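ZP: hey, is the pyridoxal-5'-phosphate complex queued? I don't see it on the tracker
AM: it wasn't, my bad. submitting now with these inputs:
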Amino acid sequence: MELDWLLAPPLPAAVPRQHLLYRRLREAILSGRLPADMRLPASRSLAATLGIARNTVLFAYEQLVAEGCLIADRQGTRVAALPAAATASPRAAAVPHAPQTLSVRAAAALQREPARDAEALPFSPGVPDFGTFPFRAWRACLERAWRDAGWRQLGYALHGGDPGLRVALAAHLTSVRGLPVDPAQILITSGTQAGLDLCARLLADHGDTVWVENPGYLAARVAFGLAGLQMHDVAVDGEGLAPCADDWQRHRPRLIMVTPSHQYPTGRVMSLPRRLALIERARGAGAWIVEDDYDSEFRRAGPAPPALFGLQADAPVVYAGTFSKTLYPGLRLGYLVLPGTIADDFIHAAALATRAGQGIEQRALADFIARGHYTTHIRRMRARYSVRQAVLRAALQQAFGPGLVLSGGEAGLHLVMWLPEDLPDREVAQRAAQMGLGVRALSAYARPPVSCNGLVIGYGNLDEAAVEGAVARLKRALGT
Ligand SMILES: Cc1ncc(COP(=O)(O)O)c(C=O)c1O
């Protein structure tokens, strides 16, 4: 068989001859052009045919022998018989293949939450102010962490996370949030999302029921759906999660996911009687409550309401916190505070499931907290976000007049603006997106029979000076 086509033009200048020959031989074998058992010429003879050095041919042959595409024996070199799936021969192509798809659960998750990349847009919810981040103090902490780094920080994280960070965080949560926390109860995670994923996999079994708020946090649905849990939507009213008797009787939960300090997205705060009742009923049902306390640091007035965790001794509550709002989301650090009864086992299982890392960032963060930068930054941002919300409220009031209905501003980085029925929120959000605004439709967070119509408006990353212009654009998107 003539093999001079193996080095026929085009010959890409940047690719050495030996690599090109190897690649073309490999392609020819995989495509079936060089069939199984075909004998190839001796290296010296092929080198003469192609006008190249023998070593060039030897390199290609040896590489293909090592990969199992060629067989070299006393008789010479021949093409190996590869499994039909590896070659594109007509026979192989006729064999029906299983469709190459994601799992049913992953496909469902994709349908529920389209990927978006709108963090930089004015009014995108949940985005902190990147401009006022204390870069210098953070960089100094990172530099110190790198300077002192040993194998401990470069290897997998210790079970539970950096010991210094767990101690600093426990002290912070006790003094600022009033949580009775021992460092041994803290598990450092790669953000709340990783924490929810762990709760789904370690506290519930495939097919168990998880209650999610309706309307509620879409990313939590993704975590629970991917873990194979059965999701049950529970309505939210002015006092937070509002389960009815039917929910308890016919949809007995194993997990209950709540955002009691600042319900996402409505911004409502769960009342104390509702908190106590939820703990009591969950205890009776053998359910775990997962308390997502994602932005209560930015309470507008007065202290944050007491967390479910620690409200009663031995309450079946796992508390999830994050540094995504107080510092920046790309840091990917958060934490779970676990009841003492399961802390050891949960942390051990989590270490098996995740193989955590980020030792340097964790150490830098411990330093950042211990030096007081974290508390100072939160205090500063609380005041700043409070001003920002007031400026936004005033601008909205000015633009939309007395008919304006706002809610959800007790804490955090977003407001909800309720819309009349003749202005469907999804259409408004779409028009706003075309005008470069990141508002989200409230109804996108809800599942039937709950319906709500409004806009979730983030103000965390919007400079006060830009508020008026952004509100003017929003007014145009609303067509009012
Ligand atoms: C309700 C809620 N929980 C938690 C988070 C933080 O998630 P993570 O820590 O994974 O960034 C967010 C961020 O948008 C949120 O809106």
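AM: back. The pocket of pyridoxal-5'-phosphate is lined by residues 126, 191-193, 217, 259, 264, 292, 294, 322, 324, 329, 334 (CB under 6 Å).
ZP: great, adding it to the tracker
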